[in-house]
Automatic annotation (TrEMBL):
<feature type="transmembrane region" description="Helical">
    <location>
        <begin position="721"/>
        <end position="739"/>
    </location>
</feature>
<feature type="transmembrane region" description="Helical">
    <location>
        <begin position="260"/>
        <end position="287"/>
    </location>
</feature>
<dbReference type="InterPro" id="IPR001757">
    <property type="entry name" value="P_typ_ATPase"/>
</dbReference>
<dbReference type="InterPro" id="IPR023298">
    <property type="entry name" value="ATPase_P-typ_TM_dom_sf"/>
</dbReference>
<dbReference type="GO" id="GO:0005886">
    <property type="term" value="C:plasma membrane"/>
</dbReference>
<feature type="transmembrane region" description="Helical">
    <location>
        <begin position="782"/>
        <end position="803"/>
    </location>
</feature>
<feature type="transmembrane region" description="Helical">
    <location>
        <begin position="650"/>
        <end position="671"/>
    </location>
</feature>
<dbReference type="InterPro" id="IPR059000">
    <property type="entry name" value="ATPase_P-type_domA"/>
</dbReference>
<feature type="transmembrane region" description="Helical">
    <location>
        <begin position="223"/>
        <end position="240"/>
    </location>
</feature>
<dbReference type="InterPro" id="IPR036412">
    <property type="entry name" value="HAD-like_sf"/>
</dbReference>
<keyword id="KW-1278">Translocase</keyword>
<feature type="domain" description="P-type ATPase A">
    <location>
        <begin position="109"/>
        <end position="206"/>
    </location>
</feature>
<keyword id="KW-0812">Transmembrane</keyword>
<dbReference type="InterPro" id="IPR008250">
    <property type="entry name" value="ATPase_P-typ_transduc_dom_A_sf"/>
</dbReference>
<dbReference type="InterPro" id="IPR044492">
    <property type="entry name" value="P_typ_ATPase_HD_dom"/>
</dbReference>
<feature type="transmembrane region" description="Helical">
    <location>
        <begin position="619"/>
        <end position="644"/>
    </location>
</feature>
<keyword id="KW-1133">Transmembrane helix</keyword>
Length: 811
């Protein structure tokens, strides 16, 4: 460290040579270097496999492949959904992988070590176990170490522990990788490197991949699992029944009509799979993420949008969330007969040092109207070891400023009332300092001592700067039934005082607790937390345990934070929320990042999540109705041996106009209803009446129209007319279900239903559309019979809805 302080200049009495070059080589060969192998838990191949090899994709892909084998490619267009849905999933997880791969708590900068009796500069990876490491002001500690000698070393460990105050490190003390030296100097022996260091262990735990739980996706997967057991045997039975309708297997192979039998069977299978719901879920999550990004809120996993709707417990980190980490000057309490202006001038002069600390800056900014004296005859700058500073003004006045307990300790008086005032102010969350005067001239040398004739003249209070939006945001969460708790590494008394200022619990006094007294058993902890609003002195592992305990009570937990000490808890929570100024490690593991660090964005974030879930529940009923009627129609076809009443391309056309496209618009509508568990049950309760009614009407048409029209279903032309008639009835039933989902219709929703109803009719008269989707419009008597079928469907649907309402009331 040429030109800088070295071991020889600071500690001339210490004769340490450090490791030799040979010893360093031995340590490197033994794998004891400060090297970490950064890998996220999932490779590119694993991500692609997990998104491609899904149950949904398997069913749709096999169905598409079967149709393509027959040469009827127009009936295989439903397979495009696989590509879109898989692409969205892969792209999202690759983005998460990229973020995780960048995760690093340590900044890879060079450090100085003492080897072979000399100070040498080595890269971060060049440090080995046992090295003598210099820790200088401004350095980030690259590896865990034990201090063997220090020169006023103070560390900022807030990113690791959550404690906002700097920590003094003396001989024998342990310094952890990832902390930052604020002041002083120290020589330390490296005790842990690479993956064994504290920062690396935190990083490794934070990097473990965690998929966000999704009620919506769980519900869809349950439907798919049930349908898998139904689809396979039903598909075989459908093929068998359709082969019989064309004269049996031998005739089907001879004439080539087996192709039409297979396509007919696939029509039933595809209809049972809510493929559009899977796609719409991914798209809706993605659009919500895009909307939030416009509001400076980054969603790193799409499923997190859903979690936002379910949150009922919000754990808030004090520093960075409620407060912004800054200090503000509050007041000067006069304890003497001296004038206020004289005391303010003295306070500014003693604070206005060349290298002001945060407290000094806060005082100078708070008293900006007071100009610091241009000439000060003598000064003792602030030292964290002394915990006070002093100044002699040009008129000969001597002023001392620092911690009250330190300044008053050598004095002859008791100062009982002053100590009581200090204690009272500290209990209210203030940082209290004392300004004192002395007739004895200050002695600005390294061994400066406090005189015993100090006269306390003023108490100075400072506090953490509370975010302007904190109180209003907390009030919003209270109104929404979300329980907020403040969890901090700071003194619980200080944290409770801040919680009171922001009205964390409304008009009630928040209940505070020291985390050091918390039970270790998760179940006991869960019971204790129900009556606690504020927790102080919380360690990183305890933050994680607190989240686990709230899970035991059945809560959906969100956690905010900005320090590395918060990363494990953020990962454990259902929803981790990091501030934009957070440590890289914290932002990497969070599902949501508030880019501009504004706490006030959270209500918008939660509201967006509620919109997605409420609307997705609404439209999920549309898709499940199709699943129900497709399954029932398939069973009816197998039992009665009739040709399948429509083609795959018919269900694609009808589904697009009555389910997929309108569902997309309905899913984007405003909706602030709070999400409640039981998504799947409510959707099934909605879908069963509509699905049963639709299946009944379509099957009745398929059974009766050939007899009424005297059609022969072996005739391809008449079979096409029959299928078109059934498709028209199915379309009408789909519009009725859409109208039920879109209620109230006296709004844009009614216009939406009308537009798609008209679009379906108009499309059937467009030659290209009619040809592509095999629509043969009925005429004459056939049109009349079809119209009767539509009217019958209207009556049956109305009856089904009425019965469903009566059953709901009876429950």
């Amino acid at each position: 460290m040429s030109g800088q302080v070295t071991q020889e200049t600071v500690f001339p009495d210490i004769k340490l040579t450090g490791l030799t070059s040979a010893q360093v080589k031995e340590q490197v060969a033994a794998g004891l270097g400060n090297v970490t192998h950064d890998q996220s838990s999932r490779s590119l191949g694993q991500i692609i496999r997990s998104n491609v090899c899904t149950l949904f994709n398997a069913i749709i892909f096999v169905a598409m492949l079967v149709v393509l084998v027959t040469g009827q490619w127009k009936d295989a267009v439903f397979g495009i959904i696989i590509i879109i849905n898989t692409g969205i999933g892969v792209a999202t997880e690759l983005k998460a992988k990229k973020t995780l791969d960048k995760l690093s708590i340590l900044v890879a900068s060079d450090s100085y070590v003492h080897r072979d009796g000399h100070d040498v500069k080595v890269p971060h990876d060049g440090i080995v176990l046992g090295d003598l490491l210099w820790i200088r002001s401004g350095d980030q500690v690259p590896a865990d170490a034990e201090v063997i000698q220090d020169w006023g070393l103070e560390l900022d460990e807030s990113m690791l522990t959550g404690e906002s105050k700097t920590v003094r490190k003396e001989q024998g003390g342990t310094v952890y990788s990832g902390s930052t030296a604020i002041s002083g100097l120290a020589l330390a022996t490296v005790t842990a490197v690479g993956p064994d260091s504290y920062a690396a262990q935190l990083t490794a735990q934070a990097k473990a991949y965690k998929k966000v739980h999704s009620d919506l996706n769980d519900g869809i997967n349950k439907i798919l699992k049930v349908m898998t057991f139904v689809v396979v045997p039903l598909c075989v039975l459908l093929i068998w029944s359709q082969l019989r309708t064309v004269g049996g297997l031998q005739n089907a192979i001879t004439t080539g009509s087996w192709k039409f039998a297979v396509v007919s069977a696939v029509a039933g299978v595809v209809g049972m799979i809510p493929e559009g719901l899977v796609l719409l879920t991914s798209l809706n999550f993605a659009l919500a993420a895009i909307r939030l990004a416009r509001e400076n809120t980054l969603v790193q996993q799409l499923e997190s949008v859903e979690t936002l709707a379910r949150v009922d417990a919000l754990n808030l980190d004090k520093t960075g969330t409620i407060t912004d980490g800054g200090i503000v000057f509050d007041s000067l309490v006069n304890l003497s007969t001296k004038g206020k202006s004289q005391l303010e001038q003295a306070l500014v002069d003693v604070s206005h040092e060349e290298n002001m600390n945060e407290t000094g800056k806060a005082i100078v900014n708070g008293l900006s109207r007071v100009q610091a004296a241009e000439v000060v005859s003598a000064r003792i700058p602030f030292s964290s070891a002394r915990k006070w500073s002093a100044v002699r003004q040009t008129d000969g006045s001597n002023w001392y400023f620092g911690a009250p307990e330190v300044l008053l300790a050598p004095q002859r008086g008791e100062f009982t009332s002053i100590k009581a005032s200090v204690s009272e102010l500290a209990n209210k969350g203030y940082r209290v300092l004392l300004l004192a005067a002395s007739p004895t001239d200050i002695q600005p040398d390294q061994d400066a001592q406090l005189p015993d004739d100090l006269e306390p003249v003023a108490l100075v209070t400072c506090s953490e700067h509370i975010r302007d939006d904190a109180e209003a945001t907390l009030a919003w969460f209270r109104d929404q039934g979300v329980r907020c708790r403040i969890i901090s590494g700071d003194n619980p008394v200080t944290v409770a005082a801040i919680a009171t200022k922001v009205h964390l619990t409304g008009g009630e006094q928040p209940k505070a607790m020291d985390a050091r007294t918390l039970p270790k058993d998760v179940k006991e902890l869960a019971h204790v937390l129900e009556d606690v609003d504020v927790l102080g002195r919380v360690l990183p592992d305890q933050k994680k345990a607190i989240v686990q305990a709230l899970h035991v009570q059945g809560h959906t937990v969100a956690m905010t934070g900005d320090g590395v000490n918060d990363s494990l808890a953020l990962k454990e929570a259902d929803l981790g929320i990091a501030m934009g100024n957070a440590a890289p490690a914290t932002k990497a593991v969070a599902q949501v990042v508030l880019v501009d660090s504004k706490f006030s964005h959270l209500p918008d974030v939660v509201a967006r999540g509620r919109q997605v879930m409420a609307n997705m529940e609404r439209v999920a009923g549309l898709f499940l109705v199709k699943t129900v009627y497709s399954a029932l129609i398939s069973i009816g076809v197998v039992l009665t041996g009739i040709p399948f009443p429509y083609l795959p391309r018919h269900i694609t056309y009808i589904g697009a106009l009555t389910i997929g496209t309108p569902a997309f618009f309905l899913a984007l509508a405003p909706n602030t209803r709070r999400y409640k568990p039981g998504f799947l049950k409510r959707v099934v309760d909605f879908a069963l009446p509509g699905g049963i009614a639709t299946a009944f009407v379509v099957l009745c048409a398929a059974w009766s129209i050939p007899a009424l029209m005297e059609w022969n279903v072996s005739n391809p032309v008449q079979l096409s007319q029959l299928r078109t008639a059934c498709a028209i009835i199915l379309f009408a039933m789909g519009i009725l279900v859409l109208a039920r989902v879109a209620r109230p219709l006296k709004s844009w929703r009614g216009v939406l239903v009308l537009i798609f109803a008209v679009a379906g009719v108009v499309g059937a008269y467009i030659p290209f559309v009619a040809h592509f989707f095999a629509i043969v419009l009925p005429a004459g008597r056939a049109a009349l019979v079809t119209a009767v079928g539509v009217c019958l469907g209207l009556l049956v649907m109305g009856a089904g809805v009425s019965i469903s309402k009566l059953l709901d009331k009876s429950h």
